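Me: I hope this is not a bother. Any chance you could explain this protein sequence and its structure tokens? It all follows right here:
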Amino acid sequence: MNYIYGLNKSGISIAKLLIKNKLNFCFWDDNKKVRINVKKIFKNIDFVKPKIENLIQYKNIYLTPAISIYKKKFENLRKKKLIKRDLNLYYENISKQKIIAITGTNGKSTTTKLIGDILKKNNFKTFVGG
């Protein structure tokens, strides 16, 4: 079982890839409004409020980039190497493919979309995540 903490663009993207790969998961976002909107998309997926001591039961814990893995509450999970990011999942699923990774503080989503659109227009098979 997998756990996704944070349901921004990255969290939704992780959920879609897990569904595509027929992997079970549950998820959570601290923002109630976000949870309500996401429930409309993923009707059959359970929201599970994280109790840090119970998260150790999950095979993979995906924290979206907006959530710092260096928070004290994640220390034990980090030491056990249970915490992953969306890029870990994408890499595991497309490791034989070429990857373009975009990092930085501002403009990542726009830059990612533009590069994805340019590659698609030039007949490259692409997957845009993040």
